[in-house]
Design goal:
Elements: E1 3-7, H1 14-27, E2 32-36, H2 50-57, E3 62-65, E4 70-73, H3 82-86, E5 95-99, E6 107-111, E7 128-132, E8 143-144, H4 149-164
Parallel strand pairs: 1-5, 1-6, 2-5, 6-7, 7-8
Antiparallel strand pairs: 3-4
Length: 169
């Protein structure tokens, strides 16, 4: 699975950038999948629905199939290799954009906004390949203006995509 992580602190614009990247890359003919990582515990199924009741009774996996979507609920244990479990579902993707999961190996692009008053992660952590911002920031990695999505796509096509082939899960 070829992954590119869009990372950053809360409210810096990760989701907005993800949506814009998906639109632009799919417009250019890329097959793009997404994964949203959360550090928090969430109930992903609606309590008391049939699929919730199936899962709570022990079904693993438990799925729901509607006229336009398929949802699959897989139990998760600490230490599971979730991306390896998901890889077959993303096998046809040219690129999988992961929102978050900064501690996982892989290429990372940080979204940063000075107005929020938090430090830029790329100034503190190794492994961030570039920073997307319209603000002045003191980092040693490339800075891509937030308003220049075309430059970020070019960065992905020229610099990141070839290195992603080395990151197999």
């Amino acid at each position: 699975m070829k992954r590119l992580h869009i990372v950053g602190r809360k409210n810096h614009g990760k989701t907005t950038l993800m949506v814009e990247l998906v639109r632009e890359l799919t417009h250019r003919g890329w097959r793009v999948g997404t994964i949203k990582h959360s550090c928090h515990r969430h109930e992903l199924d609606t309590p008391q629905t049939d699929s919730y009741r199936h899962r709570r009774a022990g079904a693993a996996p438990a799925s729901i199939v509607s006229t336009d979507l398929v949802g699959i609920f897989l139990p998760r244990e600490p230490g599971d290799d979730d991306y390896a479990r998901l890889a077959p579902l993303y096998a046809d993707c040219d690129l999988v954009l992961v929102e978050g999961h900064i501690d996982l190996p892989g290429t990372k692009i940080e979204v940063w906004r000075a107005e929020l008053g938090t430090s830029c992660l790329a100034a503190e952590r190794p492994g961030i390949a570039a920073v997307v911002t319209d603000d002045v920031v003191n980092v040693v990695v490339p800075v891509i203006p937030r308003a220049r999505l075309d430059r970020l796509v070019q960065f992905a096509e020229v610099v990141i995509a070839p290195t992603l082939s080395e990151v197999q899960v």
